[in-house]
HTH merR-type domain-containing protein
Amino acid sequence: MTQMTIGRLSKAAGVKVTTIRYYESIDLMGEPDRSSSGQRLYGDEAVQRLSFIRHARDLGFPMEAVREMIDLQTQPDQDCTAVDAIAREQLADVRKRLTQLEALEAELKRMITCCEGGRVDTCRIISTLNDHSECIADAHERLSTF
Amino acid sequence: MTQMTIGRLSKAAGVKVTTIRYYESIDLMGEPDRSSSGQRLYGDEAVQRLSFIRHARDLGFPMEAVREMIDLQTQPDQDCTAVDAIAREQLADVRKRLTQLEALEAELKRMITCCEGGRVDTCRIISTLNDHSECIADAHERLSTF
DNA sequence: CTTGCCTCTATAGTCGCTGTAGACTGTAGG
DNA sequence: CCTACAGTCTACAGCGACTATAGAGGCAAG
């Protein structure tokens, strides 16, 4: 199976047809061959590239980084310091997001332990959101439930 | 200082002027008073509401949830089960994202330990992105660096 | 009075897609 | 061969949550 239509490629790579065309339009995929009637025809390397893109995106790499890495792949004789740098940057970013999310988790737990099913006007979640500095002291003992 | 212009509100609440007007346009803020020349004039409760919105957004609450909570605040005599439910949902979501990010961190670490500054065509980061199932075995011993 | 910042409205642009419309193509069954 | 029907084509609009721009008018200090 050397040539496949966009729909088959879509299934093979797990990327929607419209998204593939979109990637083409922003020059992430080269221009594919066309059948006599104008339908796009792809080879297996298109599956590779799409999986690469999708995987990188799943890992949270920004589009720009993906593009850079793809460009680098077209010059395979260079050293890969640049690729390494991109990955390290991404790792740092992920770490930052992890820290933020952890703080966030703690705060949400706190909010929830503070809400005891009263009325909205005394609700601790609401007041926590209104004023960041509330309801910390008495939360600690109840956190185990979460 | 009972009435302030949008710029002062912006500074007081840490939300950009344009964003405030945007929130007004999507009915998150009520219509403010206007000066004789048509400039928006806000009271302190606007600072409250904006901080609430910003804080909730920082915590990752979706806009829709923010809107719901604001609506609930206008009916302060109801019980706050709904608010609690929203917060719990958000907590579950945060947990999910945490798990994903942790997996992601692990994979990025793996990718980086595998990349030894060779050439792009042998770069393990690139090949990891191309094919998910590589380069796991020999990574473990070097992970400590990260 | 002028300078310079603030505010106004309305509109377009951002990112990373997704969805739509309306036409054409390719294929399988009868 | 004809008919269905699924797949494909282009071009463009829409999404969320803002951000930026243009061009006009407002306000306070020097």
Summary: The longest helix of chain B spans residues 81-114.
